[in-house]
Amino acid sequence: MGEEKHKMTAAIKTASAVAPVHVVNARVTYRNAPIHLLEKFTFKDIDGAHKAFLKKAGFEECVILQTCNRVEVFAAARDPDEGRLLEEWASTVGLPEKDFANVEISSGREAVMHLMKLASGLDSLVVGEDQILGQVRRALEFSRSGRYASTNLSLIFDRALKIGGRVRTATGINKGNVSIASVAVNLAEEYFDDLKGKTIMLIGTGEAASLVAKVLKRRDVDFMVASRAPERAQCFAETVAGTPIPFDGALEMLCKVDLIFTATVAPYRLLTVERIENAMKNRREGMMIFDLSNPRTVDERVATIHGVKLVNMDQIAELVGKNMRSRMKEINSAEKLIDGEMRSVDMMMKRMKAEPVVISVFKNVDTIRDRELKKALATLGRTLEPEEARVVEQLSYAIVEGVLSTPMNNLRREIEEGQSEELMKIVAKLFKYEEKEQQ
User: Fold this and answer.
1) pLDDT value of residue 437
2) Of 58, 270, 289, the residue nearest 192 (C-alpha)
């Protein structure tokens, strides 16, 4: 083949791989839809949804991101039709199109910037949370494995994942717990040193109780769960975590419990001074109680009992607020990092605009090179040995590469720096480039 032929072939292939497309993002998030409505926009068949956006809505690439707080579609095409995207979304999930009136839509640079902030945790319900970075990565991997995302979206998503990781290591955006449940369990660990081996009781089966249970489960800590409705405790244990126990039995065994979380909506005190005093009789070890209920279900005077540590919602909320304020201070630093990455992406996207012209120039000139080479070889006839013919062919590639590489690289550089898109138009006209060749 020869080195020069290889270079030229590679240049055409590389240019073809990054032919420019336009990115569109459509999203429904916690910002514009409550959770119970958000569920209606989710795709039950995620694989089929990708195929629908590519085959029916006319997009060339697609990545779908679904979490408990958002449903987002990133799609790319040379001439994207936002209306068709929403129509296909509505058709796929079985909703009337009027329900999509509040769907947020971004395109081009705005869509890429949104993805950067999303991966960095700036668009999350809890600023700086780490989970979204893994969710974005898995969404991209799924689309890549199904060949729904190729060069363009892969480039953009890879950049977003890169800056998302960098923001978390270079700033304190994800430092400090901002979950009531996580803060409560952390405080308990500090108090007891190690929760494993402690007798732990969770009273309640609602949302707050579920969050506590999930934190305990992630840390591989066993606990009991009690509710006035036995069937709720049983269902909670089966779907979330914990060992269900009868409510009356729970109150009777308080003397054996080290750590209690109450997270109910009971309109009265569940843990009274009398109950806790009786539980602490003849006990050597201390007891810790977290009242996460609203209204409170633990008598505040319990805190005066020797050996009992009571922590209420106000105290935890103060710690959560402090951590959240600390995270908010890091937003400016995170945005500066994102802006720097966006400048790099802007240059990349500008360069991609020049690639169709570069492809056309290389192809057109290569056609001329091949035609003239054949003429020359036909004229020389059998006077050339095979090795000599290969040398002449290599010479033809070397001349084309030598003539074109510098001006084409200069064209890319000029477009990257935004100096003059007029230059690209002039080059296109000189080499008779027509956009239809790239369709």
Assistant:
1) 45
2) 289
Which residue has tokens 């083949």? 1
Residue 344 tokens read as: 């790099």
Which of 161-170, 193-202, 214-223, 311-320 shows the lowest mean pLDDT across its residues? 311-320
Which of 25, 108, 116 is closest to 70 using CA atoms?
A: 25
Task: Residue 240: name the closest of 207, 194, 262 by CA.
Answer: 207
User: Are the C-beta atoms of 223 and 202 separated by less than 8 Å?
Assistant: yes
d(CA 429, CA 434): 8
d(CA 384, CA 150): 45
pLDDT at 273 over 80: yes
CA 395, 400, 403: angle at the middle one, nearest 5?
Answer: 120
Active-site residue flag, 68: yes
Residue 257: CB partners within 8 Å, gap ≥ 6?
199, 200, 201, 279, 287
Q: Name the residue among 261, 253, 258 with its Cα closest to residue 191.
A: 258
Q: Which residues contact 182 (CB under 8 A, 6 or more apart)?
A: 215
Query: Looking up tokens 């732990």, which residue turns up?
Result: 200
- Among the options 62, 68, 235, 255, which is catalytic? 68
Whole-angstrom distance, CA of residue 333 vs CA of residue 337: 7
Domains of the chain: 21-175 (3.30.460.30), 180-317 (3.40.50.720), 350-438 (no CATH)
- Interior angle at CA 100, CA 97 and CA 101, nearest 5: 105
26-51 confidence digits (pLDDT tens): 999 988 887 778 889 999 999 999 99
